[in-house]
Amino acid sequence: MKKILVICQYFYPEQFRINDICMEWVNRGYDVTVLTGIPNYPQGKFYKGYGLFKKRREVWNGVKIIRIPLIPRGHTPIGLVLNYFSFPVSGFFWNLFTKVKADYVFMFETSPMTQCKIGVRYAKKHKVPLYLYVQDLWPENVEIVTGIHSPLVIKPIDRMVDKIYKACDQIFVTSPSFVKAVVNRRVTVDPNKVHYWPQYAEEFYEPLTKDEGLERYCKHECDESIQEQIRKLYDDKSFKIAFTGNIGYAQGLDVLPKTAKLLGDSNVRFVIIGDGRYKSRLLEEIDICGVSDKFIMIDRQPAQRIPEILALCDAAFISFMDTELFTWTIPAKLQSYMACGMPIIAAAKGETERVIKEADCGICTGIGDADELAKAIKQRDVTAFKHTYGVNAREYFEKHFDKKMLMDEIDTHFV
């Protein structure tokens, strides 16, 4: 039985696709160990039941989990920096004393890329192949999130990234544009070891009717106030546009309150499901614009509940901050939306726009352009949103983002 060591700062109960990838590897007969941190994303504090002295080791769906100490990210830039560096520091000491044996190291890189130093050291020490799956490009992501552009900070990060890429035997990325970005760096990366491997969506992301969505959601135990929200969502006759997931600055959700104001008396409401660093500011913007009646806010939900809530809505929304980096990105939520057969409304360009146009599954407007977004929503093709876009989204998903197809592909590299 081949053994895979996965390095990822975030893992179950945090909601990232690596959770399902690891479960699938277990189902395919691999012995999987995950080195991760104490869960704190996106709330910024340790999850209930977890801590420096709680649940540091556990087995989840056959995946062996080792949690090393880190500083929770909090809600300040300093907290985020401490979080980013505490994990690799703990990993350094873990590497000195670990007895974990692996045939491969697989690094699932969402920010911070500093976590990859743990995998590089382990693979070098034990002379095993090192694989990297890039979700966030560094140092570009650092500059966007922190606003820091000083060469004194960025150049050392750039050199770290060069060393990590050089150490890897194979590098997988989530979009064709990411392939170009990795290969064309200042220090050239061998193009033969860089592969486009898009994200899939878990099997529970599937199209549901409105009645199925309500029935399934109400079968689960949950807070009565949230269940009441879901019932009201079912009864709401407006055109409902859903956003799910992390509510961060990078998601560019500041466009929505402005758009809602421009929509005026239009029978449109935005359903925001999730949590994150930008949520409190978003609520302030909604209040300032005087559009509280246009928004339905639902707290973070288990990923398995998202298809049920989406089924009660008419379209799903994607947006970004206005930076070049995000035009290179295919966000994981796009696959989730398409798997659920949701028409897409996006304030996005580049790769996201390409997929939506190829699939003919929705509409795209300029990033951060509230005027254009409001106009597009008002002038939407009602028939296409009801009958065509959702079907097209699911068909494109099955052709390009099918889980079995993509997991079979990654299997070919474990030889």
From TrEMBL:
Domain Glycosyltransferase subfamily 4-like N-terminal stretches: 17-198
InterPro entries: Glyco_trans_1, Glyco_trans_4-like_N, Glycosyltransferase_grp1
Domain named Glycosyl transferase family: residues: 234-379
Entry keywords, A to Z: Transferase
Lineage: superkingdom: Bacteria
PANTHER family (UniProt xref): SULFOQUINOVOSYL TRANSFERASE SQD2 (PTHR45947:SF3)
Record's protein name: Glycosyltransferase involved in cell wall bisynthesis
